[in-house]
Amino acid sequence: MFLSVRGRATVITIVVSGLILALVFVLVLLLARDALMNRTIDTAQRTTERVADDLLSGVPPARALVPRPGEAPLIQVVGPDGRLLAANRRAANRPVLGRSAIAHGELLVSGRSCRPAGARCVRYFGMRLRETRWGGDITVIAAEPVPLIGRFWPLPLAMAAMLVGLLALIGWWTWRTIGQAFVPVDRIRAGMAEFTIRGLSHRVPVPDTGGEIQDLAETVNRTLERLDEAMSRERRFISDASHDLRNPITGLRTRLELGLDEDDVDECRETIRAALRDTERLNDIVVDLLELSRLDSRAPVPVERVDLADLARREVARRPRGTPVATRLEPGVVVEANPVRLARVVGNLLGNAERHAESRIEVTVARDGDEAVLRVADDGAGVPADSRERIFERFARLADSRRRDPQGTGLGLPIAREIAEIYGGTLRLVDAPAAGPPGANFEMRLPLAGPSGD
């Protein structure tokens, strides 16, 4: 029980509180003792001064030695030789107080006396007088019993009992409060334990407590939501991949079966060519799936400084002659990325533009603040506004795309966006500028590389 967070927090709270309270109680005891001692001395001194004043004024000793309310109860008059000359009733059976100081001729005497044995200790104060009815050089002494705190331990024992009680109360309150604070955590834990039964669509309860625990529950639910979406996307991915792989596999099998039945060599060659095209499509799909798998795993690949304009120029030159490509490439736009992956992004965007362009493609590389911007635009029909995000979903293909390229996989744009995001950038479809082609306008933004360390 005490190995839990609740138990450890309770023990630590009790220990720390005990140390603090013990220190406070000790300080209180010391202050109380000093205050009582000072009050005792003050009382004895005031009594001595009053008795001395009465004796010097001629008040009869019998009356002067009677303590008044609030004065010290023990009063003695001592001669220069240490003999007791007079005393009130309570001080009469006490030994002479301050005998040693009087014998040394001190004008003021003070101290503490616990004689006779078993009597209550007193603190005394005395003053030497020159002229009285007993003659000169006598000492008037008044004594006040020492407070119980200075001799016995009733108050410390009471304070120790109070300390134990307070620590018990603090421990109970801490245990109860932490337990109540962990109730929502227990509910979250119980909710998470139900995932094996209710699936990832289940959500943990969110307590209306504010603070970190509510944030925890909301974070858990957001994580579950993303995990549920990822699992759904994975299921759709497997379903779509199976569907896209099934078609060329079925076509390949059919053509091979027909090829076995063909007697004409020319017809057999044509069947083999068709089968080869299906094989190439299968290979394209597998390559794209492998690339997506590597991107999803975020497997590290070497990066280097890449001049985006040079890379775009090479990719444009590598494309087969077809739709004219106009370029506006600003030199020195350098990013840090893997050049093979960036080349794939540019190649996928150029391939998409070639499928949809009517007569012209435009490739632009430029700086925009601290970002490098690559744009690939075509003058085709464009993409409807409500489908601009759908084209980046895996295996998603619009009707126009299927008509223009029936053999496409629908993975080129998703792969391009994944690569851009891996290097801290974005890839999206934006509105075509007024001076550019009216069709689709893809824009990739990447952070510019810092200064070269060379």
UniProtKB/TrEMBL annotation:
Signal sequence, renumbered to the chain: none
Alphabetical UniProt keywords: Kinase, Membrane, Phosphoprotein, Transferase, Transmembrane, Transmembrane helix, Two-component regulatory system
Positions of the HAMP domain: 179-232
Molecular-function GO terms, alphabetical: kinase activity
Pfam family, one: HATPase_c
PROSITE patterns recorded: HAMP, HIS_KIN
Location within or outside the cell: Cell membrane
Reaction(s) catalysed by this chain's protein: ATP + protein L-histidine = ADP + protein N-phospho-L-histidine
The Histidine kinase domain, residue ranges: 240-450
Catalytic EC class: transferase
EC number: 2.7.13.3
Gene3D superfamilies: 1.10.287.130, Histidine kinase-like ATPase, C-terminal domain
UniProt xrefs under SUPFAM superfamilies: ATPase domain of HSP90 chaperone/DNA topoisomerase II/histidine kinase (SSF55874), Homodimeric domain of signal transducing histidine kinase (SSF47384)
Sequence intervals crossing the membrane: 12-32, 155-175
UniProt-recorded name of the protein: histidine kinase
Organism of provenance: Actinomadura sediminis
